[in-house]
Amino acid sequence: METPLCTACKRRPAVYKRTYSGELLCARCTRKALHRAVKRSIARLGLLKPRQKILVPLASSNPLGSLVLASALSEIEEQYGSRVILGVPEGIDASPPRGVSVAVVRVSPREPPERGDPVACWRHDRRWSLRAARILGADAVLLPLTRTDLNLLLLEALLRGEPQALSEALHSLAWTKPPIASGLWRVEGELVAAYAAISGVEAPPGCVKRLSAAKEVYYSAASGRPELEYSPTKSLDALAAAASGMYPVCIECGGYASPGESTCRYCSRYTLNVSILSLRE
User: How far apart, in Å, do the first and last CA atoms of the chain sit?
Assistant: First the structure.
């Protein structure tokens, strides 16, 4: 059977079918699609300007996404003279993408007590990466949360009846210092996996998250497709943002806390220690 041509460039053979849009993409156009989405995401954060320092933590929640994001950022930010730093917890073996600095971070404990809880995992990743960013003097922290992750986390909060967890579905938390956001919020998880396979990106095991009803509901709402359409996604974004201002913000992770509390119920359960062991180009 003859290999179909890429529907984007119409010149090179296709290697990936993007289920979300139906496009057939060659390796080059797959990478371009992800780079374009990441560039649009970070442009809204004001990070497309000279000499920025951006920390991308090797998130236990999505280590593959962290490496893909760092790889894309290094190419995008190269023209601006910015520095992309991959924050790697001590004891984890990860190969950084070309052009990315590596900060080895001592994180104790490495994972939260609720190891299988997706909300706890993401809050833990935010908590230690914010502390590391302050030590390093980073201008922003970019997490590898994809559009798929954000929608699943929102549904998780709704199904739990836990409105404070709605903050996990926001693609940026501008109130933290430094600001923290997702560099992949315009990208579906499937495209990240395709980019990794094409580029040869491999990641260590991540936080083993428990199976939840959210994934079943998500796929049901998506009518059997791997992603929701854009309009429902915007509605979910609006729902998550509606809770902003209704709850205090946790001083540790930046997520919503219970009324009258300065730390959320996740961060208050354990003491976290963070230090930078080394920083290399």
Answer: 46
The reply to whether 115 falls in a domain is yes
pTM of the entire structure?
Answer: 0.88
Tell me, yes or no, whether 184 lies in a domain.
Answer: yes
Residue 206 · residue 149 · CB < 8 Å: no
Tokens coding 88: 């790697």
pLDDT digits (tens, 9 = 90+) for 103-118: 999 999 998 988 778 8
Q: Where are the beta strands (DSSP E) in 83-198?
A: 83-89, 101-108, 140-146, 172-173, 180-184
Sheet holding 140-146, edge to edge: 172-173, 180-184, 140-146, 53-57, 83-89, 101-108, 273-280
Task: Report yes or no: 127 and 271 within 8 Å, Cβ to Cβ.
Answer: no
Domain that holds residue 74: 45-280
Q: What is the pLDDT of residue 202?
A: 84
Distance (Å, rounded) from C-alpha 49 to C-alpha 157?
Answer: 35
**Which sign does the torsion angle of CA 203, 256, 181, 176 carry?**
negative
207 domain residue, yes or no? yes
Residue with tokens 């309009």: 231
Q: How far is CA 261 from CA 113, 134, 172, 264, 272, in A?
A: 20, 23, 22, 7, 18
Question: Tens of pLDDT along 169-206?
Answer: 888 898 999 999 999 998 888 999 999 999 888 887 76
Total domains, the chain: 1
Write the CATH number for 205.
Answer: 3.40.50.620
- Structural domain includes residue 6: no
